[in-house]
Amino acid sequence: MIHGIQNLNFFDFLATVVSEFFSRREIKNITITVALRQILFTGYEALSIITLAAVAVGAVIVLQGNSVLASFSQSPMYYSILVAIIPRELSILLTSLIVIARSGTAISTEIGNMNINNETLAIYSFGISPIAYLAIPRVIAMIISVVCLTVYFNFAAFMSSWFINYLSDGVIPSHFIYELFTTMSITDLLMAIIKSSLFGFFIGVIACYNGFKVQSSITEVPQRTIKTVVNSVSVMVVLDIIITSLFYLYLY
After folding, report:
1. Residuewise pLDDT in 10s, the chain (252 residues)
2. How do the domains of the chain map onto residue ranges?
């Protein structure tokens, strides 16, 4: 347990993470190794559940739309709704929720246990900043993973939607892709990248912050893990409302 980190509030911790990202060059190689391991867990190992969620979303949009409107999947409205629901909102929100449930809780638990076992103090005694060694690579990995998983979610959801459309109405891939990219704009892609980057950043920072706040009792770990989930979801919802509102006010 390091009292300097323990006494930081969230905004001071956030500022410290940003400042040490640009100043701690001496452990760059270690940071890259830790970040790659985190990307493997957060990104690659989450592909199966991301695929399942994306396929379900893409299929349900077509099936529910056709149940309400007989010619839904053949109308231009279908592509507009597809773009409005998947890349602008659901792909980012569902991906972030999955990452919070899997990786946010894991990071908070891991760092909390390291605090209890004085492993963070041992790192500090070697002259290495625990924030630079433990938090920064995980935050970087979280940003990269959430962005990449969001892109993959969009691809899987669109392919699922096309496949159901193909089975029901015989829509060929070239027609589907043409209509989809005609409807989708650069603004939609920009919104997805900005949202997923910010969501990944804050999920990583919140998870690390709550992990470092664990002091001496093992019972604090699940409490801080729950706070990680609640705080991450709350910040994610607020950010989503703010970013979406700004995009619709100024860019759409």
Report:
1. 555 677 788 889 999 888 888 776 555 656 788 889 999 999 999 999 999 999 999 999 888 887 777 777 777 788 888 998 999 999 999 999 999 999 999 999 999 999 888 888 888 888 888 888 899 999 999 999 999 999 999 999 999 999 988 887 777 888 888 888 888 889 889 999 999 999 999 999 999 999 999 887 888 899 999 999 999 999 999 999 999 999 888 876
2. 3-250
Distance CA(88)–CA(252), nearest Å, equals 12
Other C-beta atoms lying within 10 Å of the C-beta of residue 174: 8
The DSSP code for 45 is G
